[in-house]
Request: fold
Amino acid sequence: MNTDMLLKIVETQLQETQNMREKTPDFIRKVVHLYTLQLMKVGSIPMEFMEDVLTDIEAEAIEIYRKKTYGFLTLEEYRKHKFRQKDDN
Reply:
């Protein structure tokens, strides 16, 4: 698994402010979808392993998400804090 690409997708999506009220499960689902699409561009995932691959990607995405948003109760709170910080500078 190319964790660098997954990390980049998580970071990019965390900066997305179009849907500030996005819930964590929806965020993770979107990240897994985007990463899976990237994997499919590079190669194919056999259908018999697709569920296992998606489970692994989801677990990794959740771990990265938790590390990136540590100290914030919600995704919305994290985004508001980061967005406000950029405006203040």
Summary: The first helix runs from residue 3 to 14. The CA atoms of residues 7 and 64 lie 7 Å apart.
